[in-house]
Amino acid sequence: MTCFYMGTREKMLEVRAPSVNMPSSKQGYFNKVDFLNGGTAIRRSRAAHKLYTMTWNSMSRDDARQILDIADGVHGTGPVYVHDPVAADRNVLPQWWATPSQGGFDGLPLNDGTRGELVTTPSNTLNFPHDSILYTVLENQTRRVWIPIPDGYTAHIGAYGTDGTGGTVVATPTVDHTTDGTPVTLTLLDVTDDSRFNQTFDSTSYDGVTLSLGGAGTLTLSGIMVQVLETGVTPETGGFISGQGNSGLQFVSQPTYTPYSSALDKVGVVAELAENYGWTS
Q: Fewer beta carbons within 10 Å, N or C terminal of the chain?
């Protein structure tokens, strides 16, 4: 049985993996207007939220109950998190964290305040976003994103940009949902550096890690990457990988539960989850 991890800050569960071909699209604002002269105008947001449709075609009633319990808030009523194997070895951050310059357009600014100033990313061959963003960080004014670290895994973190007058990127490992480890101020990597990561946290000591801005003053951010790999696996070097994950999910509605056979102990479950935590936290 292929498994993946799903749950809340209070409790992550190893659950049966959804069926293949799991939709995990991004959705944002969109409006299209057709003109009488045959032309058209399109307006859409650069930023978007992730939307997942997870289907379990044949699973035991006990396995299904794990999913239903998470939806019912049995293990906590906060955001729902998943360790998605498709994103874990690429970049588990939501796009608006991985590409901070979205905060200079219509995306959420990471400093939870005024939008930063867009600047052109220095020349590089590692496919970093064209735009970087200059933030003026105020004390205790920052958004946060939490990444779970399942048992047997290690989180690898790298933030790219340029130091300014005191703004920083901080990685705070979490022991559990109420206890933090010692915050680490990340050393910003240069966009010409292909090492990707310079900080790690593993599951022997921590259950996750929170990213935030820290300090007070300016800094320029070009990109941030996080991979969560099995402990002992060395991340590959290379260019920038855009965000493939999310900031925290909620069930859009109660999962659909379909009994197949009591004799064979088989049921089906379909659940739709949408990323909303970044916009509600």
A: N
Structure letter (DSSP) for residue 105: T
| Residue 268, pLDDT score | 95
Q: Which residue has the tokens 């590692």?
A: 126
Cα 86 from Cα 21, distance rounded (Å): 11
Domain ranges of the chain: 1-84+248-281, 85-244
The amino acid occupying position 259 is: P
Cβ-based neighbours of 197, under 8 Å, separated by 6 or more: 156, 157, 158, 225, 227, 235
d(CA 224, CA 266): 42
Joined tokens for residue 201: 């946290």
Joined together, the tokens standing for residue 263 give 């004799």
pLDDT averaged per 10 residues in sequence order, the chain, 281 residues: 82 90 87 95 92 94 96 95 93 97 93 89 98 93 95 97 97 97 98 98 97 96 97 97 96 95 92 92 68
CATH architecture of the domain 85-244 equals: Sandwich (2.60)
Give burial (CB, 10 Å; 0-12/13-18/19+) of 93: buried
- Quickly tell me which residue has 């409006």 as its tokens: 31
Q: Give residue for tokens 């220095």.
A: 122
Whole-angstrom Cα distance, residue 246 to residue 49?
8
